[in-house]
Every structure is written in structure tokens, then in C-alpha cells.
Write a structure and sequence with these properties.
- The protein is an all-alpha fold.
- The protein is 86% helix and 0% strand.
- It has helices at residues 2-32, 37-42, 47-68.
- Helix 1 (2-32) runs antiparallel to helix 3.
- The two termini are 23 Å apart.
């Protein structure tokens, strides 16, 4: 039972770290692009911006998964 709780705690910590890194990646990309990226995606329905953020999320996910593995 102790090993299960340790593994669950580790998984939760890595999930939290991955989420924080994805948020940091979004903020950095938002700062590097002209205008507000979230406004472009949500209000103006800019598909290119959505594809950019999706690509960043996938790339960051691969990096975090490789670092954890």
C-alpha cells in the first residue's frame, strides 16, 4: 500500500509539473507573437493561432514525457 501511495504521489507531482510547463510554454509563445494570442483564437477564430498553440502543446508534452521517462 505504501508503494502505491508513493507512485500516486509521484504521478501527481509529474502531472502538476507538466501542466505548469505547458502554461509557461503558452505564456512564452503568447509573448513572442504579435497581439494577444488567446484573443486571436477565441474572438477572431484564427485557425493558424490555434494550430500554433496545439503544436506547442504537443511538443511540450513530448519533451516532458521524455524527461519523466
Amino acid at each position: 500500500m505504501d508503494v502505491l501511495l508513493t507512485n500516486m504521489g509521484s504521478a501527481a507531482a509529474f502531472a502538476g509539473l507538466g501542466f505548469v510547463l505547458l502554461l509557461i510554454g503558452f505564456v512564452i509563445i503568447d509573448l513572442l507573437t504579435p497581439g494577444k494570442l488567446w484573443d486571436e483564437i477565441v474572438n477572431k477564430h484564427n485557425n493558424a493561432g490555434a494550430i500554433l498553440i496545439g503544436s506547442v502543446a504537443i511538443a511540450m508534452g513530448i519533451i516532458v514525457a521524455a524527461a519523466i521517462h
